[in-house]
Design a protein that fits this description.
With 352 residues, this protein is an alpha/beta fold. The protein is built from 16 helices and eleven strands. It is globular and about 70 Å long. The termini are far apart.
């Protein structure tokens, strides 16, 4: 490369950086404005109206101050979260996009619960201690910010516990259909399935509905299953996965093991190995696998999740294929395979 080309390239890169740096100066704004839209119920109002709404109609429906709501909508339209459509010759209405449909609270693909969890003040506070966590070993950033680790905090604050359960159910409604469509053969021949850390049972209820021959056991802490809804074909069982797991043909994990370090994961998996048949049992893990496909459009989400684990937990992390192999081998599993699905997670099958 000629010196002149290097100089031109340097100028171009500097020009890009000059613009991109503002994304980091105001990076929190996108989350804050989307949270505002969820709390106001903008997407829900437009969905319930059944057609595009003018600013005046939205203002009346939501009880907002018109000029401030306009500024919020201008921002959301710029980022293509909502769009403007002509309603008549002299009026413009706001309508939904595929992105804003994910902001409808009870929508089929709603992501509102995850957004509300991650934008909760207790969760956001932990990010301010991230550098301290990198510099030294000690309490998790969440504990440094809130005085308790995330699980003790949830136990002491039922509202936060509910936020976590709703966020996990929100992800289940996105990920479980991808599991069912992408690798239904994983559940062939299973008579029973225990969902370890199953929360309010959303994921297991979807699996039992898709594979009705399976008897489901929703296993979580007693305080969690005490308020879990009842589903046909599912038994709610309270307990501690670090002590024992109910017997079943297979154990199922989704977004549980990434909360823990290798030592804890190995302990949990060893207990699960004892709870399944040694000849035909297996453990099904629905978790992210880092770095498998560099061209995957969701790879950036897995890297962000890894940062979230560092901020919110003591030893939790997202794992590479090699790291998953390590914890499974140490837990006594003889073999495993990984199946990609159309989601952030992959499906890992591990056999005794």
């Amino acid at each position: 490369m000629e010196k002149g080309d290097i100089k031109v390239r340097g100028v171009e890169e500097d020009g890009i950086a000059e613009v991109d740096i503002w994304n980091y100066v105001f990076g929190f704004v996108n989350m804050a404005v989307v949270k505002c839209a969820i709390e106001l119920g903008i997407a829900d109002a437009i969905e319930n109206h059944g057609s595009p709404m003018t600013l005046s109609e939205l203002t009346t429906a939501l009880g907002c101050e018109p000029s401030r709501l306009y500024r919020i909508m201008r921002f959301l339209v710029h980022y293509q979260i909502f769009k403007e459509e002509p309603i008549s010759q002299d009026s413009i209405g706001f309508s939904l996009t595929p992105l804003s449909r994910r902001l409808i609270r009870r929508g089929e693909k709603s992501m509102t619960a995850l957004i509300l969890l991650e934008s909760n003040p207790a969760m956001l506070a932990s990010w301010h201690s991230l550098s301290a966590r990198v510099l030294e070993s000690g309490n998790s950033p969440f504990e440094a910010a809130n005085g308790k680790d995330i699980w003790s905090y949830a136990e002491a604050n039922p509202g936060h516990s509910k936020l976590i359960d709703e966020a996990m159910a929100c992800d289940a409604r996105v990920a479980v259909p991808a599991v069912i469509e992408g690798c239904p053969e994983v559940f062939d021949g299973l008579g029973s399935l225990v969902d370890v850390g199953g929360g309010n049972g959303t994921a297991l209820s979807m699996l039992v509905k898709a594979f009705p021959w399976i008897r489901g056991i929703n296993f979580d802490l007693p305080r969690v299953v005490a308020v879990a809804p009842k589903f046909d074909g599912i038994e709610n069982v309270g307990g501690d996965m670090f002590e024992c797991v109910p017997n079943a043909d297979a154990a199922f994990f989704m977004w549980v093991l990434h909360d823990w370090g290798d030592e804890e994961c190995i302990k949990i998996l060893k207990i699960c190995r004892e709870a399944i048949p040694q000849d035909k049992g297996k453990v099904i893990i629905v978790e992210a696998v880092l770095g498998e496909d560099k061209d995957d459009k969701l790879d950036f989400v897995r890297l962000m999740l890894d940062m979230a684990m560092m901020a919110h937990t003591y030893k939790g992390k997202e794992r590479t294929l090699k790291e998953w192999g390590y914890v499974l081998e140490e837990a006594g599993f003889s073999r495993f395979n990984v199946k990609p699905i159309h989601a952030v997670q992959s499906v890992i099958e591990a056999y005794p």
